[in-house]
Amino acid sequence: MATGVLSYRGSAMFRMRLVTATLTGKSVLIEDIRVDEQEIGLRDYEAGLLRLLEKVSNGCRVEINETGTSVLYTPGVLTGGKFSHDCALSRGIGYYAEALFVLGPFCKKPISAVLRGVTNESLDTSVDVLRMVVVPVLRTFGLEADAFVLKINKRGAPPGGGGEIKLTIPTAKALSPVLKVAGGEIRRIRGVAYTTRLSPLFASRMVDAAKSVLVDYMADVFIYTDHYKGSGGGASPGFAISLVAESETGALLPAELTASKGDMPEAIGEAAALLLLEEVARGGAIATVMQPLVLMYMAFSSEDVSAVRFGTLSKYAISVLRLIRDFVGVVFKIEADRTTETVLLSCMGSGHANTARVVQ
After folding, report:
1. Backbone conformation region of residue 271, classed left if phi is above 0, alpha if psi is from -120 to 50, else beta
2. Residue 88 CB contacts under 8 Å (≥ 6 apart), including other chains
3. pTM above 0.90, yes or no
4. Region for 32 from its dihedrals, namely left if φ exceeds 0, alpha if ψ lies in -120 to 50, beta otherwise
5. Helix axes 265-282, 201-214, angle to 10 degrees
6. Are 285 and 182 in contact (CB under 8 A)?
7. Which tens digits make up the pLDDT trace of 205-259?
8. Is the pLDDT of residue 288 over 90?
9. Domains defined along the chain, listed by start
10. ∠306-311-315 over CA atoms, to 5°?
11. Would you say residue 357 has pLDDT above 90?
């Protein structure tokens, strides 16, 4: 192994390892990728991620062995700019968009990307939650609100995909520290139920089922329907629902569910509503799905203290904490609150600055 190369084994955290390596400029060697599985080596969506990193940077080098079980990644300079990318249909567009969310603020030029593929599926965060929750939360780290936009051009349900989004991410000289220590009482619930290449009644049935559960919790519930047909509806029929609970302190707590073959709209709407109530019950000022991205932004913010209250820490977020320690040397202080059953995470930002940024 070359000097100064961080080494890992297995396919876990593949995306975040590459993203963190790109931000820090450190090479990373990932070996034994799925060596114990029948189909060994990289998957198509991981190869797609490597191609995306090549588009958003200049000078990166990727060395893959013959079996695809070992990857040596040497990052280049983050350039950003305009590009398009066809995402693998085995994962959602969110898998790739989240990587760009982390890299975008530190690029030379603002990112203006068109991503094509599956917009809503069960493995990755949907484009609806990205638009309604992720983008607004990340804006609070000092990013220009009007320049940080996600627009859904086309819907794409699995397995055929065909969806398309336009993602614009501004650059920043440095990320600002944040203090989000109070979740607050929920004041309203909003959401969207979409259908593509199906009857619009599927969306209405999901909305009615979700409301039947949520109105017992609070009166201010509004879920709008979004129907796509023709070329805007992608290559496959499908339907899904995304819900967001908004608190008095501005916390955004989402839940979502995408239908599989044979699922009924009423079952999807009711189950999504119950998932939302579970997310609200966990407490905290940051949603579970947001934990990895927020931790990354906290670690790479300017040299000041950030503090955020989470509900239950996910296993993925715990792995991100270890990854941040390995690459950046930032260690978080974790304080458990037994009364609210939440955890307060705080850290001193690494002071990571964007020296390549072009000022318009």
Report:
1. alpha
2. 43, 44, 45, 47, 48, 117
3. yes
4. left
5. 40
6. yes
7. 999 999 999 999 999 999 999 999 888 899 999 999 999 999 999 999 999 999 9
8. yes
9. 6-169 (3.65.10.20), 186-282 (3.30.360.20), 286-348 (3.30.1370)
10. 90
11. no
